[in-house]
Each structure stands twice: as C-alpha cells, then as structure tokens.
Amino acid sequence: MSNLQSQDYIRISATTITPPSARSTEDQVAKLIDVTRCIGCKACQAACMEWNNLRDPVGEFEGTYDNPLDLDPHTWTLMKFTEYENPKGDLEWLIRKDGCMHCEDPGCLKACPAPGAIVQYANGIVDFISENCIGCGYCVKGCPFDIPRVSEVDHKSYKCTLCSDRVAVGLEPACVKACPTGAIMFGSKTDMKDWAGERIVDLKSRGFENAGLYDPPGVSGTHVMYVLHHADKPQLYAGLPENPKISALVEFWKGLVKPLALGGIAFGVVAGFFHWITAGPNEVQPEDEAEAEHLLASKNRSGPDPSRSVAEETP
Amino acid sequence: MSYPKGTIIRNSTPARINHWLTAACFVLLTLSGLAMFDPLLFWLSNLFGSGQWMRAVHPWIGVVLLLSYCGLIIQYWRDNIWRREDLDWMLAIDKVIVNEEEGVPEIGRLNAGQKFVFWSMTLLVPALFVTGLVIWEYYFGSATSIETQRIALLLHSMMAIAAILVWIVHVYAAIWVRGSMRGMTQGYVTPGWAWRHHRKWFRSLVATNSSGPHPNTDRSAQK
After folding, report:
1. Could you count the other beta carbons within 10 Å of the beta carbon of residue B128?
2. Which A residues 240-299 touch B at CB under 8 Å?
3. Using one digit for the tens of pLDDT, what is the confidence trace for B155-181?
4. With B73 labelled, which of A5, A155, B125, B197 sits at a CA distance of 20 to 30 A?
C-alpha cells in the first residue's frame, strides 16, 4: 500500500524514535468475520482482487474448493474449506476467510529490518509500505499466522492492507462491502466485539455451546476477529492457531541479542583502543634484529653454503 | 614478486591474494549484515545502493567468502595444528599482552591466538553459510519450515556477531604487533620480527636455509 496517513502511527518498523502520533483520538477499527454465517461464495476474494487490482495467474485444480491453494503475493485473502465430522457424526463445512489478522502486537513489524516498510496506524491497521520493503522475508518469520508472501518478481512482501486506503476515507474494506450474507462486518473494535457478543449468545442458544470470539490475547488481540462455532478448537478451521504469539526466537533475536551484540562489538573496539594507549604497539627492537643476524651468521659459518639468499626467490 | 634482500617471506603471493579476497568479502558481509541486524545501522545499506541491492548481494558475497575461505583452510591448516607449546603460550598470555617477551615460550609460524582466530572462523564460516542458505529467501524461502528459518536466522545473527568479535581481535592484533601488517600486504618480515614473535619458526627456516614461509624439506638445500 501507499502511505496515506502520515501523522497517525502507533508503530513504524525498524525505528526507535516515537512515530508521529498527533492524531491519537482515532477509533481502533476491526473486521469481524462471522464464520457461522459464511456461505463460501468467495465474493470477498473477488472483491479483494478487484479493489486492489490483483490478478493471480491461473493455477492448477487440486481437487478442493480452496482456490488458489494458498495465499500468495496476488492473493491477500483466501477462503479455506474444511470438512469436519463432529462427535455426533454430522458433517460440518467450516469455511474460514484467511488473511492478515492485523495483530495489535505485529510480529512482522517487530522482525522487519527496513525502517518504515511496515507501519501500524492509530486505527490499528498494519500496513506494508512497499517502497521501503527490501524483500528479506523477515516478516514471514515474525508472523505467527503465516501470512506475508514475498514476490519472486519484484521482491516485495505482500498481504491484506485491510483496505487502509478505503478506511482512510471512511469506506469499509472491499470484502466487507461485497459479502452477501453480512458475515463480514467492519467498524470500531468495541462495536464489533458487542456485535460478536450478541451473535455468540444466539449461537449458544442454538446448541453451539462452545461458540466464541477469536481475538487472541497472545498478540494483544487482533483487528480481524472471527466468530467461531467451535472457539475451543480453532485448529479445526484450516489450522487457525490456538494461542498465536510472536515466536520466542524472534523476540530473543530482536530483544536481547541486538543490544548485547552491539555492546559486545563496541566493547571489543574500545578495549583494543585502551590496550593501544596503555600497553602500546609491540615493536621489533634493534636487539631482536641483532639476535636474528647472529643466528643467521652462525648458521652461515657452520654451513658449506655461504651464499644463502634470503627472500629472493619468487614463491 | 621479489622481496627486499635479507627479509623473510611470511605469506606467499597466492596466500595474500586469497587472504585479502576473504577480507574484502568479510567486511562487505559485516556492513550489510549489521544493516539488516540492527535498525540503528540500516543506513549502511546505502553503501550497497539500496536496501534491495544489499539484500540481494549479501548472500552472493557469502558464497564467494566460503569458497575463498576454503582456500585459506587449504593453505594454512597445517600451521594451525595445536601444539604443546601453544598451551604454554596461552598460560603466558599476561606477558604477551603487555609486550613482555621474557618467559614467553618460543612458537612456530603461528601462535595460539592466531590459531584461535583460524579455527573459530573455520567453524563459523561454514555454519554461517548453511544457516544463510536456509534464510536465503529468493532461492530457499520455501525449502524449509518457517520455524527452521527462525532458528537459522537467530543462529546466523549470533554466529555473525561471534565472527565479528573474532575479526576485531584479528585486526587489532595485526595493528598492535608492528610488522605483521606488512607480512600480509607485501608478504615479508624482517629476521628480527621473526626472531621476536615466531622464534621456533625462524630457527626452522635458518636451519634449512629457507627464505620462508616454510622450512625447506629438500635435503640438498639444508647442506
């Protein structure tokens, strides 16, 4: 995405200064995907392609409803279909719209080494600013949901923008507008949680006692939330992680290792400098040359070859 | 190349070319690697044209470094075999560090510090290469699991920092011990330098009428 909102950031990748944040009264937004009302029509997928001008090359048919099979640089949202046989022996067709979850604590942004390539706006949207992206793929390692995809053509990383361009001018994301059943809602995060609460009460009254909201606390909540019939088993929905967190390896790498490493390098250089000004250089003394000459001379006296030519041959 | 009369060849011409190719790669990898490691140093990416260029070129420099370092291993491994006097030298490190030569055991062509640098890099360079392949997004981005890549990225960073620390020791030692740098640039040292720092090596050269860097094994030359 281009960088539309320049004065209301919460976070900017690879930047230690406080981001411009004067416009801080903005409402946090959220997209609520009510999986229980999804009919799998893929209108959201088509709307995403249309609004963002994405055209994935025609792929191969693999015998499933998933089309394409996985997210890619041209596919920022994807319906994932799961056939689940519940304990009663009934078939449930679980359809989840996969895509960026817009974490409140984004792992992609934490891992990113390029200043300003990933930003989080005050409204909570996590956006890739492609002109700053260097294509290293660190965001892929940072993401707990396996979302970003690096293009092999332009070496930029891509994912759902939550239609930050539309939201910036007061419109709902394209997928929300296209959804024919109202399974995708958009608004302030508070409103979306209230609405989800009503839905969950309704679902429980209809026998889905484990119905619930997916707003994982491990990443401080997300700005894309799901209403699930089986909130106790999110993995049923094409492997939605149960308790997503930024990997401890990434936290360690971007946390403790960074200052320790730079400190260690600085210490090495400073230690060298202070050694130089205290012990000083180790210089060859005239006595050393004399001793060496003495040894050479004694060898030459004893040996039958007095014309020892030192260092004249080419190696 | 010819060397001034009366000097000793410390490093042969092929070895020096090999060394400086490796050094150039190492410096470029350090600059680009640190730029990707800590955002405070991201400005170093400008030295490579842009962040994209830096990201693209870093792994290729790594490939060249690996090949180049293999050359150094082939040329230097024999002189880096650990010997009994190396331990004595390490025990006398307090004297070495303050430029006191009395009581420091005579050592061969390379001392324990140099051997430490050699073996550290011999372990780190291939390990950095392998972990680097795992995180080489363009060619191997989908070859391993994301969790494997996270481990590789963390290991690659930490081993790179270790290599940089070893490199600082290496560079400072070359500045500190006067005459060493010329031994690697022009390739020769004076007999006094050899006597002072690598006496056992010097004795072996004198005993075999060799002008360095290795004692003559040819019997006729020893007569």
Report:
1. 23
2. 247, 249-250, 252-253, 257-258, 261-262, 264-265, 268-269, 272, 275-276, 279-286, 288-293, 295-296, 299
3. 999 999 999 999 999 999 999 999 999
4. B197
The half-sphere exposure of A287 on its side-chain side, counting CA atoms within 13 A, is 2
CA dihedral B75→B79→B82→B83, nearest 10 degrees, is 160
B165 and A265 in contact by Cβ < 8 A? Answer: yes
What does the alpha-carbon distance between residue A10 and residue A126 come to, in Å, rounded to a whole number? 10
Contact A177, A160 (CB under 8 A): no
Paired tokens of A12 = 């900017």
> How far, CA to CA in Å, does B87 sit from each of A71, B54, B93, B116?
58, 42, 10, 12
DSSP annotation of B165: H
Residue B43 DSSP code: G
pTM of the model: 0.92
For residues A105-134, give the mean pLDDT: 96
Strand order in the sheet with A212-214: A184-188, A29-34, A224-228, A212-214
Name every residue whose Cβ is closer than 8 Å to that of residue A56 and which is 6 or more positions away in sequence.
Answer: A49, A68, A72, A74, A75
Beta bridge partners of A170: none
Over residues B3-13, the pLDDT tens digits come to 899 999 999 99
CA distance A27 to chain B (A): 30
Q: Which of B100, B101, B200, B206 to mutate to test the interface with A (most CBs of A within 10 A)?
A: B206
* ipTM of the complex in this document: 0.90
Among residues A195, A288, A192, the alpha carbon closest in space to that of B178 is found at A288
Catalytic residue flag (residue B170): yes
Q: How far apart are CA B217 and CA B61, in angstroms?
A: 38
Burial class from Cβ neighbours inside 10 Å (0-12, 13-18, 19+) for residue A118 reads buried
